[in-house]
Design a protein that fits this description.
This protein is mainly beta. Among the domains are: 2-50 and 439-583 and 618-665, Alpha/Beta hydrolase fold, catalytic domain (Rossmann fold, 3-Layer(aba) Sandwich); 146-256, no CATH class. The chain is built from ten helices and 40 strands. An eight-stranded mixed β-sheet has the order 33-34-36-35-37-38-39-40, with helices on both faces. The chain has a four-stranded antiparallel β-sheet with strand order 2-3-4-5, with no helix packed on it. A four-stranded antiparallel β-sheet has the order 6-7-8-9, with no helix packed on it. Strand 28 (388-394) and strand 29 form a beta hairpin. The protein is globular and about 70 Å long.
Length: 671
């Protein structure tokens, strides 16, 4: 039984980075949970090789007048499994797509419109060399702007007059003193980055301003840490940005909001580096900066609020504190869109537009701060529905260009008015592929857990109805605070095509249900959340369509924690898969890339003061109780949950006689 499940799972691993494992998709390998189908189906079933056909849209950018939209499309190249990124221009009126002219770089992304809408600055790469490029749309010509020795590190930002571009540039610095080829000295607290080998150079970034007149770049900030997310003030005199330059080698003080005067290069730190800071944007009058933040960047159970900084006098306030909404977050899936790309748009007459998760969806809403009342706000929902809105931008008239996905579509580009009306789909990039394959349909199921808590679960049925009860795979999301829900998942659709029912659920601890719900498991992993897992599995498997004797539990990161915890305390699952899992909290606190600060916030202290809690909350403590066959999958360059986590679980199960297999993936990190 277990070896059959192993083959099924290994056909498709880590889709967002690599397709080395797609070779197994060319020949169907049946799992041991045999299901009989009604084969009177016109479309074919999805296979792992279909990953090469999916088009992943992201980062829509609309011109100020609303006439054109730039969109980034990502697909996976069959040769080598690398991502290919390309920019398309789409007419807001007709939906006609304009491809880039000849001579463009092999990869193009992160397009940003000039204020007059005539030019598009974007990131382009040839042979891995990332530089800032310009697409003159009216002349349909492309040219390279920068020649940074170590590359450009992020999107460019246009000055209000369209004469300059601010951008972060990369500067390579060694992580320690090199002692020959293999040895190195570490003296700083920050020395790891996910997906990067320890001892590799850690890049720092500064900012430059490129003049469209002189075609020269001048230094704006020196690369002391990592400068990013630059945003010009409306008068063009100041650039706001995010940086950890105050203390780049310590986890205790993180990225803060800064400003720099363009002429004098005078720097001002606006926040303390303790709280979260994302997506800075200036108010139309230039008196304030809005950003997404909270009081503790390590505590991901807290709401992500929209905060304001008044420039003079300097006053910080939260305008969404009373809404109990977490802005900037996204529903989790197996592609990386929505992770770390939170944004805000502030338009005069409309307010601040942001995305937020709500019961497994991702919606957009306008937040309008009340003048003279720092805590006052008017909140208007703009775009809702059983879907996830991944990214967006707005025109001066408030028109919203956005990418939306649901369980049966990877996502397309849409346009709506500021109030969410007159919505139109502008692209059909996945239409051809979707016309060939039959996907499973998702239904929302309400599950009652302990303490009368109602949980949301999404059940994906096989696209061809089985003629006999079919096995169920329950997938636990990571975080533990990232929510699941109404979003396309290639892996879940692939598994459903093999005859499985596949379910995801937002257990206690998930965002999108209020801060009390998301923080309810802090310091108590494996308690109420474990009860939720059991109740979801029990109630879903009670359906006559599901074979309750063939339940599978799978999950990654915290989801992997829950897999290994659950199979130590229940025998209801017949097979289990844990990917990049959290296994031993003590060793994780000392080896994870953030120095253990996030884990300390989750548990309420460090191992030195909470040793019993760390021990009692670790699945490794109970590994000897596991009777369920387990497949461990781990990226060898995972620095968030280092591979030693799975190594310890594997060794413990081998010692205790458990049935376990271990797949190690070279060159891969956590995501």
């Amino acid at each position: 039984m277990f070896q059959g499940w192993h083959r099924v799972q290994c056909q498709y691993l880590m889709p967002q980075r690599d397709t080395r494992y797609l070779k197994a998709a060319t020949a169907h390998q049946p799992c041991s949970f045999t299901t009989t189908f009604d084969l009177s189906v016109k479309k074919r079933l999805i296979a792992a090789s279909d990953l090469l056909s999916v088009r992943w849209l992201s980062d829509p950018q609309i011109t100020k007048d609303g006439s054109l939209i730039c969109i980034t499309e990502t697909k996976i190249c069959p040769e080598g499994g690398l991502e290919i990124k390309m920019i398309l221009l789409v007419s807001s009126e007709t939906g006609v797509e304009i491809p880039p002219p000849s001579g463009h770089p092999e990869r193009m992304w992160a397009g940003r419109w000039s204020p007059d809408g005539q030019s598009l600055a974007f990131l382009g790469s040839r042979n891995g060399d990332v530089q800032l490029w310009l697409w003159e749309v009216t002349r349909n010509e492309i040219e390279q702007l920068t020649e940074e020795p170590h590359g450009v590190a992020g999107p460019g930002a246009w000055s209000p007059d369209g004469q300059s571009l601010a951008y972060p540039f990369r500067w390579e610095a060694n992580s320690g003193s090199q002692l020959g080829d293999d040895a190195y000295t570490i003296t700083q607290e920050v020395y790891k980055a996910d997906g990067v080998r320890i001892g590799a150079p850690i890049a720092k970034t500064g900012m430059k301003v490129f003049s469209m007149l002189s075609k020269e770049a001048n230094l704006l900030t020196t690369p002391l840490g990592k400068d990013s997310a630059c945003s010009w003030s409306p008068d063009g005199n100041t650039v706001a940005f995010i940086s950890d330059r105050a203390n780049p080698e310590a986890y205790s003080s993180g990225p803060a909001l800064w400003t720099v005067e363009v002429e004098s290069r005078s720097l001002h730190q606006l926040t303390d580096g303790q709280g979260l800071v994302q997506a800075p944007v200036w108010s139309p009058d230039g008196r304030k900066i809005a950003f997404i933040g909270n009081s503790n960047r390590h505590d991901t159970s807290l709401n992500h609020e929209i905060k304001l900084i008044e420039i003079a006098p300097r006053i910080e306030s939260s305008v969404t504190d009373g809404l109990d909404i977490s802005f900037g977050l996204c529903v989790q899936s197996d592609d990386l869109r929505g992770y770390g790309d939170a944004s805000l748009d502030w338009k005069e007459g409309f307010g601040i537009l942001g995305r937020y998760p709500e019961r497994g969806t991702v919606h957009l809403g306008w937040v309008e701060p009340l003048e003279g009342n720092p805590a006052g706000v008017v909140f208007n929902e703009a775009l809702k529905g059983d879907r996830s809105i991944l990214s967006f931008s707005t025109s001066d008239s408030g028109a919203i260009a956005f990418v939306s996905t649901d369980p049966t579509n990877p996502g397309e580009l849409f346009l709506a008015t500021s109030d969410g009306k007159n919505e139109r789909r502008l692209t059909d990039r996945n239409g051809s592929w979707l016309s060939e394959v039959q996907l499973g349909e998702v239904s929302l199921v309400s599950v009652r857990s302990t303490d009368a808590i109602l949980l949301d679960a999404w059940l994906l049925a096989p696209p061809v109805k089985p003629t006999n009860p079919a096995p169920l795979i329950l997938s636990v999301h990571g975080g533990p605070h990232w929510p699941a829900g109404w979003r396309f998942s290639f892996e879940n659709q692939r598994l459903s095509a093999l005859g499985y029912y596949v379910a995801v659920s937002n257990l206690r601890g998930s965002q999108g249900y209020g801060e009390q719900f998301s923080s309810s498991i802090n310091g108590a992993w494996g308690q109420d959340d474990f009860e939720d897992v059991k109740h979801v599995a029990e109630q879903l498997s009670a359906s006559p369509a599901i074979d309750g004797s063939k339940l599978v539990l799978m999950g990654a990161s915290y989801g992997g924690f829950m897999v290994c915890w659950a199979i130590a305390f229940t025998s209801m699952f017949k097979a289990a898969v844990a990917e990049n899992a959290v296994i031993d909290l003590v060793s994780l606190a000392g080896t994870t890339s953030d120095g253990g600060y996030s884990m300390a916030e989750e548990i309420g202290g460090w191992p030195e003061s909470r040793a019993d809690t760390y021990h009692d909350m670790s699945p490794l403590t109970y590994a000897h109780q596991v009777q369920t066959p387990l497949l461990l999958i781990h990226g060898e360059l995972d620095q968030n949950c280092p591979i030693g986590q799975s190594e310890q679980m594997y060794s413990a199960l081998r010692r205790s006689g458990g049935e376990v297999s271990f797949v190690r993936i070279p060159g891969e990190g956590h995501a």
